[in-house]
Amino acid sequence: MEKIRQTLRDHAWARWTALGIVAFTMLTGYYLTDVMAPLKGLLEQQLSWDSSEYGFFTSAYGWFNVFLFMLIIGGIILDKMGVRFTGLSAAVIMVLGTAIKYWAVSTHSLDGQTWNILWLFPMKAQVFMAALGYAIFGVGVEVAGITVSKIIVKWFKGKELALAMGLEMATARMGTALALATSVPLAKSLGHVSKPILVCLILLVIGLIAFFIYTFMDKKLDASQAEFDKQNNVVNEEEEFKVSDIFKIVTNKGWWYIAILCVLFYSAVFPFLKYAADLMVNKFGVQESLAGTIPAMLPFGTILLTPLFGNIYDRKGKGATIMLIGSLLLIFVHGMFSIPFLNHWIIAIILIVILGIGFSLVPSAMWPSVPKIIPENQLGTAYSLIFWVQNWGLMGVPALIGWVLDKYCVTGQKVVEGVTVNTYNYTLPMLIFTSLGVLALIFAFLLKAEDKKKGYGLELPNIEK
Ligand SMILES: NCCCC[C@H](NC(=O)[C@@H](N)CCCCN)C(=O)O
């Protein structure tokens, strides 16, 4: 009998098609994640939300992931049950959470109601229900993220791993860019702040169907790998994941440096994006209806650059150095944003472009570096633990910024379309973002040193010759 020399992943068309499908599912998830960011002003006008309520809602993304350990549980399920079951479940959870959020923002049945959350905090019922839906969605999109990372490693290990991860992130960021650029026009043209969420809901259902289609490819990949192993007498030595492996992951210094760099770096980017449209209005005097357009350039820039830097990492290596340079750019940009007299909108555009470069450098090198430190059977859990640490920042920093804005940064009030809203000075929030960048740089240095000591190969190319 003729021996099989190739598995499905050795066919370029198959691995790039698989990537395209799962990346699309992530695009739909990222669209919903950021769809409310440019609507902060409209939420204040149409639903009377204030900055703290907006901050509370935004931080809900991480509630269940962080406090109920849903992300870690998701990672363990991923390593135990595999990518098909976990990915499908995650996509269903995204749809469910978004349906609840849409209902909360569009219904009138919650009008005027206040609930005591945990018998302690009075909160508008509408804000709470929208946040609950977003928290459920947050579990789905984060577990989908780790699942897709593991899927990419499965198809691209020893091949164009960083390019593939870069392309997946680029596709996902198209979702972010679309959200930033389209949510205000959609809300205005369709007549209500809830309408962009409805558009997301439809997209998420399509994303779920796409992932369902992917599961057939995944089955074929497993079958071709099993056949290859059988015919070539390959003994699969990969051990099954054990819950005790978590101990191995969390006692690995290199893993910790990536996790801490990740939380610091991402906390200075994603939460910044939530307030960036408002920053454009308050600091740079940009019109409300156009305010989302400048921050939207950031994800647009990363769409081109993340795969480009990923490709460089695949071919030339220098992963740890790439993360260092990205952290430096982050400090520069937020430092400049915090200087009060630099308030021309052209400066805002230039800084967002530079931030786009930084935000392409770090992720393009960080995520493909994890499989160099952690074995594949523990990868789902390792990614989920990194996401878990990161989610503390994604949850805490927006709430912190919302609170800081309300407490220390209100400069006055103005009337927008007949409604009185606060105006803010963004210097203090931008200094907070700058400090996160400085800490990120320190951990990028520590990671580079640890790589040198342990020989993880972060500075080596990913493509095996
Ligand atoms: N294959 C790379 C996976 C990580 C991508 C990374 N995503 C995250 O860090 C998520 N935990 C947070 C997503 C928040 C979406 N606005 C990324 O760079 O997007």
UniProtKB/TrEMBL annotation:
* Stretches that traverse the bilayer: 12-32, 60-78, 85-105, 125-149, 161-184, 196-217, 254-273, 293-313, 320-339, 345-370, 382-404, 424-447
In the bilayer, the protein is annotated as:
Multi-pass membrane protein
Primary location recorded for the protein, binned into one broad class = membrane
Q: Which InterPro entries does its entry note?
A: MFS (IPR011701), MFS_dom (IPR020846), MFS_trans_sf (IPR036259), MFSD1 (IPR052187)
Which GO MF terms does the UniProt record name?
A: transmembrane transporter activity
User: Domain of life, per the record?
Assistant: Bacteria
One Gene Ontology cellular component term attached to this UniProt record is:
lysosomal membrane
Q: Per its UniProt record, what SUPFAM superfamilies does this chain match?
A: MFS general substrate transporter
Domain called Major facilitator superfamily (MFS) profile: residue spans: 18-452
Reactions the enzyme catalyzes: L-aspartyl-L-lysine(out) = L-aspartyl-L-lysine(in); L-histidyl-L-alpha-amino acid(out) = L-histidyl-L-alpha-amino acid(in); L-lysyl-L-alanine(out) = L-lysyl-L-alanine(in); L-lysyl-L-lysine(out) = L-lysyl-L-lysine(in)
Which controlled-vocabulary keywords does the entry list?
Lysosome, Membrane, Transmembrane, Transmembrane helix, Transport
Q: Where in the cell is it found?
A: Lysosome membrane
Query: What is the annotated role of this protein in its UniProt record?
Result: Lysosomal dipeptide uniporter that selectively exports lysine, arginine or histidine-containing dipeptides with a net positive charge from the lysosome lumen into the cytosol. Could play a role in a specific type of protein O-glycosylation indirectly regulating macrophages migration and tissue invasion. Also essential for liver homeostasis.
Record family assignment: Belongs to the major facilitator superfamily.
Quaternary context: Homodimer. Interacts with lysosomal protein GLMP (via lumenal domain); the interaction starts while both proteins are still in the endoplasmic reticulum and is required for stabilization of MFSD1 in lysosomes but has no direct effect on its targeting to lysosomes or transporter activity.
Report the protein name in the record.
Answer: Lysosomal dipeptide transporter MFSD1
The organism is Tenuifilum thalassicum
